Amino acid sequence: MSLTDSGSPSAWWSFEQQAGGVLPEPPVLVGLLGGDVNGDGAGNQTDAYLARRATGSSANTSNFHLDVDLSGTLSESDGYAIRLRNGRTLPC
Q: pTM score > 0.70 for this model?
């Protein structure tokens, strides 16, 4: 399987099968936008609100997506990193 990176700040990857196995046609696309903690494809005020509301909590199975700096604690630095991505979206 090969992985092709789009090279953009918001990432789309294309997975293609090279030998054996089965993947759907066309290739599977996976999009990732840092700071989009609610998964709606955009960095916005909702993401910042969710991070602000959880500040001070320990990361766990229900809120780990808010721990963008991977410190294990939901902190103001997570909120800051999320706010920096406000207005960015995944390309269509």
A: no
